[in-house]
Amino acid sequence: MALVKDNILLQFVRGTLGDQITIYERNGQIIMAKKRGPSKKKPTQKQLEARYKMQVAAAYAKVIMEDPELKAYYKSLAGPGQNAYNMAVKDAFRSPEVQNIRFEDTTVVVTAKDEFRVAEVEVRVHDAAGTLQERGKAVLGRNGVDWYYKAASLPAGGKVIVVAEDLPGNATVREVKLE
Predict the structure, then answer these.
(1) Which one, of 105, 150, 157, lies nearest residue 131 by Cα?
(2) Which residue ranges in the chain fall short of pLDDT 70?
(3) What is the number of other CB atoms lying within 10 angstroms of the CB of residue 172?
(4) 64 close to 74: Cβ distance less than 8 angstroms
(5) Alpha-carbon distance 82 to 85, whole Å?
(6) What is the pLDDT of residues 120-148, one digit of tens each?
(7) How far apart are CA 124 and CA 56, in angstroms?
(8) Residue 137's beta-bridge partner residues?
């Protein structure tokens, strides 16, 4: 790979030359590199999964670009050399993280983070037999990380299931046994 500076011949040239050299621009710099060819190896299962995940992320980003509000949101997060589409793909590629679940009396406090934004947190309360007692959406706290859900009761021996979802719809499920 070579960086080209102040070359009048290559100033407006982009693309592939003679099936050997590719010329492209990245962050205002002209780059010349050997043309890549397709791999001769069969893709592994992990590679196939990554390709599929990338296809889903790219499809999400394409749809998001049509929504001016979300496009502006992702564009505001883009750094140099990035755009709203890149940020939307990055967001769709990763799921939110449920970092902590704690109880304050009958209030379930969920600490959930995402590189971009956690869209919603749902809390489900089950009794000891596994029967769903109640479910509902948690409310985002002032700090922007903690979500609060006021349960009617937290049955001993039961469990609380928390589902955190981000803008692209990636969900993370976490379960806590009640004592």
Answers:
(1) 157
(2) 1-4, 6, 8-11
(3) 17
(4) yes
(5) 8
(6) 999 999 998 888 999 999 999 998 889 99
(7) 28
(8) 122
Under 8 Å between Cβ of 31 and 1: yes
Strand-pairing partners, residue 174, are 162
For residue 68, what are its two tokens?
A: 């001016």
Global pTM reads 0.72
CB 15 within 8 A of CB 23: yes
What integer best gives the mean pLDDT of the chain? 88
Look at residue 179 in the predicted model and tell me its pLDDT. Answer: 80
Per-residue three-class SS string for the chain: CEEECCCCCCCCCCEEECCCEEEEEECCEEEEEECCCCCCCCCCHHHHHHHHHHHHHHHHHHHHCCCHHHHHHHHHHCCCCCCHHHHHHHHHHCCCEEEEEEEECCEEEEEEECCCCEEEEEEEEECCCCCEEEEEECEECCCCCEEEEECCCCCCCCEEEEEEEECCCCEEEEEEECC
The total number of residues shown for the chain amounts to 179
Helix 84-93 vs helix 45-64: crossing angle, to nearest 10: 130
- Cα gap 160→134, rounded to integer Å: 10
